[in-house]
UniProtKB/TrEMBL annotation:
It comes from Agaribacter flavus. Fe cation binds at C95, H137, H141. PANTHER family: PEPTIDE DEFORMYLASE (PTHR10458:SF22). Removes the formyl group from the N-terminal Met of newly synthesized proteins. Requires at least a dipeptide for an efficient rate of reaction. N-terminal L-methionine is a prerequisite for activity but the enzyme has broad specificity at other positions. Its cofactor is Fe(2+). This is Peptide deformylase. Binds 1 Fe(2+) ion. Pfam families: Pep_deformylase.
Length: 185
């Protein structure tokens, strides 16, 4: 499978840090390349999707996430949230590992991250809004946490079949993405 699905025990495990010596290794660089290809494949089906993925979802228990920010891939190795805003927002979240479900989750409106880039350089980045929520979601994956663990009201959990019942074109597009994500490669 391109993306590990709910029920896979790997999704509930804590990912290992990547050492400085491993960052430029073929292993880590190939994970980044495969994650980019997966996100590009998703984006080719739906332009509004394909913006974030964690290494555990791709089958690797290493502390690595990939975000697409303003159209550019930003690989983050050993990402750590070093500061958060007091302000919180409630976002409707989805996850490539169980894409048939959406729910409302509370996240910090903005965060500051420290991470190492794919060249081994230390970086910091401030993210707001959607990008902040995406990063928090993906970092949760590195700790074996799924967005459903943050849901305060089970009444907010809804299926895509229900949510998109009046938009059959979008529903078919989403189902095509789900087929792509679960396809055995």
């Amino acid at each position: 499978m391109r993306i590990r699905q709910l029920g896979d025990p790997l999704l509930r495990q804590v990912s290992a840090p990547v050492s400085r010596a491993e960052i430029k290794s073929e292993y880590i660089q190939n994970i980044i390349k495969a994650m980019k290809q997966t996100l590009d494949g998703i984006k080719s089906i739906s332009d509004t999707n394909g913006n974030a993925l964690s290494a555990p979802q791709a089958g690797h228990l290493v502390r690595l996430i990939l975000l697409r920010i303003d159209g550019m891939f930003v690989p983050m190795i050993n990402p750590e949230i070093i500061d958060v805003s007091d302000g919180l927002s409630i976002n409707e979240e989805e996850c490539f590992s169980f894409y048939a479900v959406r729910a409302k989750v509370q996240r910090h409106q903005s965060i500051r991250l420290a991470y190492t880039d794919e060249l081994g350089n230390d970086q910091t980045l401030e993210l707001e809004g959607e990008y902040s929520a995406l990063a928090q979601h993906e970092i949760d994956h590195l700790n074996g946490v799924l967005f459903l663990d943050h849901v305060e009201s089970m009444e907010s959990v809804q299926s895509i079949d229900f949510l998109l019942q009046d938009d059959q074109v979008r529903l078919q597009q989403v189902k095509s993405m789900m087929e792509y994500m679960t396809e055995i490669v």
